[in-house]
Please model this.
Amino acid sequence: MPYQNKVDPWGQINAVKSRGMFLGNRGMLHNTSKEIVSVHKIKGWVTCLLEFKGRKREIMAPNTYTELFFLDEATAFSAGHRPCAECRRERYNEFKEKWLSANSHLLEGNKPTIANIDKVIHQERLHKKEKITYSTNFGALPDGTMIRRDSNAYLIWKNKLYLWTFSGYSLADIKIEKNDVVKVLTPKSYVKMFSNNFVPIIHDSI
Model:
């Protein structure tokens, strides 16, 4: 059986075989039987490289963070994660600059530290362990945003919708007008950041 450590656009952690393009973590979420027993332990949910400086890890080893996996960066952002400051330093710096440019008012006068940014993002991602979503016009959403329709997640990319799965995307045969109201999975501050020319990394199935 595959480990329960693959993250979907809702931020839920699933047991599937597909690994994806990125690693990440939210702290130690597993027990000694390598079972997921917590949604998160920290507010700084990060997205990491699959390989970094030759480091090797045992999956769900005792007393260490739980390795989570994401199809791509758009999936990770939808789930509420952000780039790691260690293994993805350049991307992290770009993220912080673009996030602050689009969302500094959300800090309400607090210092522009990553800890304070993480606090804002945490308020956008979860309410009582449930995914926070919101509704807006389809035409207001930039590339890289994930939306929910029925029970599925779709990626907006180059004026088209792509059905998300753990193994990749497929072009969706759905027509949505610009003024149609849709349910958004990607946190609001990330959507604003995407509108500020920050483009998430997309799986090559597109």
Observations:
- The chain has a mean pLDDT of 96.
- The CA atoms of residues 131 and 184 lie 11 Å apart.
- The radius of gyration is 17 Å.
